[in-house]
Amino acid sequence: MRFVIRRLGALAATLLVSSFIIYAAMYAAPGSPESFLVRGRTVSPEVLASIRVQYGLDEPFLVRYWHWLTGVLSGDFGESLATRQDVASLLASRIPTTLGLTAYAALLIVVFGVVAGVVAGLRGGALDTAVLLGSSVGFAIPTFFAAVLLMSVFAVTLGWFPVFGAGAGLSGRLLHLTLPAVALALPAIAVVARITRTAVVEERDTEHVSVSLARGVPWRVVARRHIVRNAMLPVTTIVGVNVAALVAGAAVVEHAFTLDGIGSLLIDAVQQKDFAVVQAVALVLVAVFGVVNLVIDVLYAVIDPRVQLGGESA
Predict the structure, then answer these.
(1) Domain 94-313 has what CATH class?
(2) Can you give the residue ranges of the ABC transmembrane type-1 domain (predicted)?
(3) Per DSSP, what are the bridge partners of residue 259?
């Protein structure tokens, strides 16, 4: 429990520092909220001053940051400059699509990446060669090109899947998100399969595995307890990193398939200089990365208790 509490404290500190950087970066970027609000029109100094007062832009930077941070802690992310909608409501309506897409892609990464790497590392032969070749192809295909290719073949030519939208209901949602999830997960599957295969091969060739087999321990037991379990430490890291990156990478796929997720919301907000929305989405992305890293740390302690013991002795 102390191990988890320490990691939660580190996550809270990371989010605090990140929130300041995100808030400051938006005001350091070219342009300003005032220029967007007046939309290039020439206004009198009095009107400009009233706009600054209305949106709290006349206050010192640290005061504005403090008001924004306290609002975020209470669930208030401010108001969108473009649509005048509550940012929290915008996020709440977009997050389910992104969560569904990333969860689907993460499942594909685990099923195809980890399983393919484990099987290839344990069995070798033609299957190993096929996994190495397939992972090399997956490395070379950018996410956006994969989205266009999948859409062209399986949606337009074959008509097996819908082209646009997120669908309604569980079956409709799964059908609509299949092609976007495959496009999003494809590069990560290649990375995870290659690293998993390498980790399994290294563990398979270790001395303690040879000794266990020489003592008559069944291959199935050795593979499960000594090879796969020990290989899961680096695999857990790479899976966690790629799953965390899915949320950021989802923006490209959501834009290609016109999905109403937070990735497409971020792209629109950046183009419109909608500061409040950009800050909120960026903070959500940082929080997702932090939570995934926390889960990885906990899984490390479950797989290898020495990780937890090492942290306590430090």
Answers:
(1) mainly alpha
(2) 95-296
(3) none
